[in-house]
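Appendix C reproduces, verbatim, an entry submitted by the partner laboratory led by Prof. M.T., so that reviewers can inspect both the input and the predicted structure.
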Amino acid sequence: MKRTVFATLAMLSALLANGQESQTVYNFLRLPVSAHVGALGGDNITIDDDDPTVIFHNPALANNVSDKTMNLNMMTYMQGTVTASASLVRAAGERATCGVSARFLSYGTMAETNSYGEQTGDFSAKDISVGGTFAYALSNTLSGGITVKIVTSYIGQYSSLGVGVDLGLNYYDAEDQLSVSAVARNLGGQLTAYEDDFERMPLDLQLGVTKRLVGSPLRLSASLVRLNDWQYGIGRHIVVGADIILSPQLYLAAGYNALRAIEMKISEEDGSSAHGAGLSIGAGLLLQRLKLNIAYAKYHVSASSLLLNLSYSL
């Protein structure tokens, strides 16, 4: 049965790793939490919205979030999985902001079999992350932030525990409506591993820029992701997105993730197709206290994904 459990674990890790060659653990941390980020291609560290979900992507952006704002999120993923998250952001003086967050991914129940393929029972698998965020305004235009998170993973009777850190910087010029960021996500490692087989965290070094065209409702974003992993050409590291800001309360967004599109391609008789993977769309309704964001994308060839955020400021 042990071989079956670890074969299943390897399969789950491969699915979440989006086909990358080098194996890492806790790959659910790569999935977007912010629906706005999801709509902009799944990776964005520069949007300056009053949105608590941005702390999952760049802790420095927490300074843009209103005091006492909480949010709940859910995301449909592969069949049989359930993923959800939540966060709470509070001001800590005039220049600092604190936040707490949690995310959960359940892979559902799977058959437990012996070496002869005979079913002997069932087991479940899940990943959990709980974190704390602190952001500080270093100047009127520059903010820094850090998120420390405890990550656990369970598959049957086996478990793993790790610690991860996100570091972020954001420069924002309100007059020019220009935002530039640098982020190191998932620094750290495992404290305990499955049968002492220690694996790397999904480290991701990112750079990004967002610029709204003056006098226009169009806001453009570009990000460079996985800059620590150069097994791909530069073109595969690019994520681009665009917002059409119809009013302060309503936006439409779309994005393209080059790496996801290439990794999700499957061979067909007349060539290859990603079946829409890499493309994403979304929209947001931003009221004074209540905010609703939604995004549609594909993170797996066999299934589409819907990401929903609901935020409320007390």
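The chain has one domain: 2-313. Additional entries are available on request from the coordinating office.
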